[in-house]
Design goal:
The protein is of the alpha+beta class and 163 residues long. The protein has a single domain, classed as Jelly Rolls (Sandwich). It is 40% helix and 25% strand. The protein has helices at residues 10-17, 25-33, 90-95, 116-125, 128-153, 156-162, and strands at 36-40, 45-47, 55-61, 64-69, 75-81, 86-87, 102-105, 109-115. A 4-stranded antiparallel β-sheet has the order 1-8-3-6. Strands 2-7-4-5 form a 4-stranded antiparallel β-sheet, with no helix packed on it. Helix 1 packs across helix 2. The radius of gyration is 16 Å and the shape is globular. Mean pLDDT is 91; it is low at 1-5.
Amino acid sequence: MAKETEVPGPQWLQSKVRRYITLTDEEAVTFWSFFKKQNLKNKELLLKVGAVCEYFALVTDGCLMNYYVDENGFEHVLQFATPMWWTADLNSLINGVPSNYSIRALTASKVLLLSKSDLDELYRKVPATERYFRIIFQNSLIAHQQRIMRNHAYNAEERYRQF
């Protein structure tokens, strides 16, 4: 069971994005209004391979795992998403194509969901959020590039210690 965290709301969101952008109280309320809240049980799927990804998910509690299963039935982890990490199959979400991987809760988890159309509308209503997500995407790309390098340079135990 995931530990209890503070109940998120506009002020919580405002405090979490402050390191990237400044939002007025009104902008924080608008940003917050776009989220759909969802609780996931341990091992529950947020996204199943073959389905079109409908949401960009912000983990507020718990841990999610993005993974694919190879032809031999082995799971390969692409990403772990812990509190304040965003996750989705961006290719599926943005382009509306079936996902090549699944996203599963590793513990009971809480997520805030943002659809592609809501994200586009959010950019129009609160322009500062476009900067926020640009920074988030840049940081994600950097992390993925570093992970690829670590996968080539380190064994599994060394990679685990660096997580």
